[in-house]
# Entry
Amino acid sequence: MKKTLFIICCILSFGLTACKNDAAKNKTDAAIMYQCPMQCESDKTYDEAGSCPVCKMDLKEIEIENESDKASNEISDMSIYNLPSTWTNQNGEDIQLVDLKGDVLVMVMIYTSCKAACPRLVADMRNIEERLPKSTKDKVKMVLVSIDPKTDTPERLKAFAKENFMDEDPWLFLRSSEENTREFAAVLAVNYKKISPLDFSHSNIISVFNADGEMVFQQEGLGVNSDATIEHIEEAVDKI
Amino acid sequence: MCTKTFRLTLVFIAMQMFSYGQSEGMVHIKGARYIPLYGRDSTVVEVKDFKLDAYPVTNADYKEFVKKYPKWQKSKVKGLFADANYLRNWKSDLEYKDTENPKSPVTYVSWFAAKAYCECQGKRLPTMDEWEYAAMADENTKDARIKKSYNEQILAWYEASRSNENEIGQNPKNYWGVYDLHGLVWEWTSDFNSVLLSGESRKDNDKDNNLFCGSAALGATDLMNYAAFMRYAFRGSIKANYAIKNLGFRCAKDIDNTQ
# Structure
């Protein structure tokens, strides 16, 4: 009993001091393979666990990164994929921003209970989406990020998505902790403030990110002409 | 058995010392409700009890940090997290220029860097409400905002040049025992980007007028408090990757109720 306590104390003291120095590791890019720990068959790998046919030792798990993935795994200096935060989509699935890598992202920050600017912002997003040619649309994700994660649960986002006929590609709704949301807003230069239990003031900005997660354009204001935004989206898609 | 108990006690003592060690240099600030200059509809906000660093983070403190966490060194930091001015007064990754005083507040640091620094100490950046709450005290009152002397002093400092080169702790401590909230540098807060200014500061730029939701009109409850208004306006005008000459930071911490 005491021993357990001792261990718990140790873990706690470590846990408390651990700094958020975590580089998000993208597991999906690495395949798990098995290899003999003695490397009896040199570099030979197996897909399943088992024992080595030569020395009979248990095969050891190793991770192999695809060469092609490795090259594209480099995250550039200005990429939002440097953010390690975890987000939840409208289907309740946890994702990291880097999982969106490879698509052009059109992002806006809203909250679903908003009655003033957000419906117009959402309309602007829809307007942009409608104007994109089919070939472009396949490589674009239209992302709506909640600034009110307390109210905007995944269920709520799902309901909002359905209500607005946005519950399918290229639409994606995301929420995270208040701290991560604040940080994400800082990256987008979106300012927001809670002004009553249900309402926020916020900047009306739609941001375009290229396939590497670098911001290439921002459309500021409501109901503005989105020609330039569309141009930048198409340009970013052409570069994929 | 005896040794186990002994070991357990040791661990507890070590942990206690450790948690005290972490709070070293922090002062306890008793929370209350108050009306900030620029709050939620200019109504009362509640600040809970919290701990705040007695001094701003210094050049020497920051040097220790970048030694330990190389990703925040000048040459290694990501552009997303700090602009080209980051640690501009440093001659290399681990050395500030000879002209810099180790005891001066660190500046040319971005919000991301300040946030990471605090998190690595088991702390966090203070919220804007917390910072303003601690900063409205003078030497002997919790809320000195109506005092003429308080406002004059701050404004006199805003006019002084190169105050960021002074050492920490030279100004008298305030009611809470906190030094240099005014007088040296401006400081990052965790939610600096919750300031939305419309009209005034952006009037010269038509494009920015419809950047914000309508409800965000200037929320000044006391326009007399010009110094504070300047702080909010400044916060509303900066971005998180900016590294600026007269902008530093200090850390805060929640009160641990279990102790």
Notes: Chain B touches chain A through 43 residues (CB under 8 Å). The longest strand of chain B covers residues 26-29. The domain at 2-254 of chain B is CATH 3.90.1580 (paralog of FGE (formylglycine-generating enzyme)). Chain B has one domain: 2-254.
